[in-house]
Amino acid sequence: MLIEYHRNMLSDKPRLAAFHAALKKVILKGKTTVADIGAGTGVLGFLASKLGAKQVFLFEQAGVMELATKLAADNKIRNLTFFYDHSTNVDPGEKVDVIVTETLGNYALEEQIIQTVEDAKRFLKPGGTVIPQRIAHFATPVVTDRFYKELCVWDKVGYGLDFARAKEMSLNNIFVRTFRKTDLLGAPQMWDEVDLTKKNATTRKGKAEWTMAKEATIYGFAIWWDCELLKGIKLSTAPGAPKTHWEQLYFPVLEPIKLKKGAKLGLEIIATSSYEAGTNMRWTVTANGKKQVLDLEKGFIA
């Protein structure tokens, strides 16, 4: 994994501030023990230690763990125990008061946070705290064509060549983008919510529907998440929220959809993210009595 990936995360001030605030809220100096799952460079474990945690266990399977151990020495943080492995393969030997993980992606669940947290609960003392606790996913229609046009260059290859098949593959993909307010219909709707303090299915299903207040052409959907670390402490990738290293996601349509005032627009998303299956997303758009079905699996060359 490139060090630049971790540089981007560490430059994300809202991310660090939110996790620091959450840890500060639950750590009692000299008493609280913490497990940092997917520790990366170790920054959350280091923050926990500096806030007074009695002991911090850090779990990381990637090579960045070697860097984390050296950074801990550089910063003279000694109340740490490192496990150079995925947390699902390890028994730390004792229970902790807090488990914390920042295994969040642009699609919040793409790094298998549901399974990671569910497994890590075996480390947790009765009444212990999970950070983060809730993730809500939102969607709203996209009404400008600036991202859709990027995906239609296949129509302009020229020389009498037909690349429609390649265009369809492009449209069956999900793209990381940053949206402006003018790109969006407004009225975002929540299509899924995960309570990480409880057991959750790794396949998520949700629906949203809009009634058009005026005529518009729909070019896809913007998707983002809000994450509650603890009550009152939140991270968000919503357009207009404080900028993070995460962005929104663009789910295209196969063909732009022209809708009149009062027309209905429906979106259904089925998303799977697990260690066994990886991540896949399927989205069905319903409008004007027709359906467009897109699937991430159709967007890749085997």
Gist of the model:
With 302 residues, the chain is an alpha/beta fold.
Average pLDDT works out at 96
Question: What is the fold-level CATH name, i.e. the topology of the largest domain?
Answer: Hnrnp arginine n-methyltransferase1
Reported CATH architecture of the largest domain = Distorted Sandwich
Distance between the termini: 23 Å
**Rg over C-alpha atoms, rounded to the nearest angstrom:** 22 Å
Uncertain runs are: none
- The CATH homologous superfamily of the largest domain is called Hnrnp arginine n-methyltransferase1
User: What's the level 1 CATH class of the largest domain?
Assistant: Mainly Beta
| Category by helix and strand content | alpha/beta
Query: What portion of the residues fall into strands of 2 or more residues?
Result: 35-45%
Number of domains: 2
Apparent shape: elongated
Q: What is the number of E strands?
A: 15
Number of helices: 7
The biggest beta sheet reads: 6 strands, antiparallel
What is this structure's SSE topology?
Blueprint lengths: L2 H8 L2 H14 L6 E5 L5 H8 L4 E5 L4 H11 L5 E4 L12 E6 L11 H8 L3 E8 L2 E9 L3 H5 L13 H8 L3 E3 L11 E7 L7 E9 L4 E15 L2 E4 L11 E12 L4 E11 L3 E10 L2 E6 L7
